[in-house]
Amino acid sequence: MAIKKQYLKSKPVCKVTFSVPAEDAQSIAVVGSFNAWDSEATTLKKLKNGSFKGTVNLPSDASYEFRYLVDGQAYINDEEADGFAWNAYADAENGVLNV
């Protein structure tokens, strides 16, 4: 998995690209505090090589919790997250993204 951050010079926004290798998956979405944990708000596109990729523009100077939702059933974290935070509601850790 990979997270790439590109800060825009023209405005206080960070362009974040998520890449997830998952050849066996049918769909992957990024859910998090930046999209109200909406499983349909940030779906990643499946590439020919079997990985999934997508980009989100996020306001900079903030932290966001997130996870990947695979095939609408399994939540996974990105090992390249900036950190991890326990979430009592989910009874699991979420990845943390600092932009």
Give an account of the 3D structure:
The protein is mostly beta strands. It contains no helices and nine strands. The strands form two sheets. Strands 3, 6, 7, 8 and 9 form a five-stranded antiparallel sheet that branches. It has a four-stranded antiparallel sheet with strand order 1-2-5-4, with no helix packed on it. The radius of gyration is 13 Å and the shape is globular.
Strand content: over 45%
Helix residue percentage? under 10%
Distance between the termini: 18 Å
Largest sheet: 5 strands, antiparallel
Keywords: Kinase, Transferase
InterPro entries: AMPK1_CBM, Ig-like_fold, Ig_E-set
Domain AMP-activated protein kinase glycogen-binding: 23-80
Organism: Winogradskyella arenosi
Q: What keyword list fits this structure?
A:
0% helix, 99 residues, mainly beta
Please give the structural blueprint.
Blueprint lengths: L1 E6 L5 E9 L6 E5 L12 E2 L4 E9 L3 E8 L3 E3 L6 E5 L4 E7 L1
What is this structure, in a nutshell?
With 99 residues, this protein is mainly beta. Helices cover 0% and strands 55% of the residues.
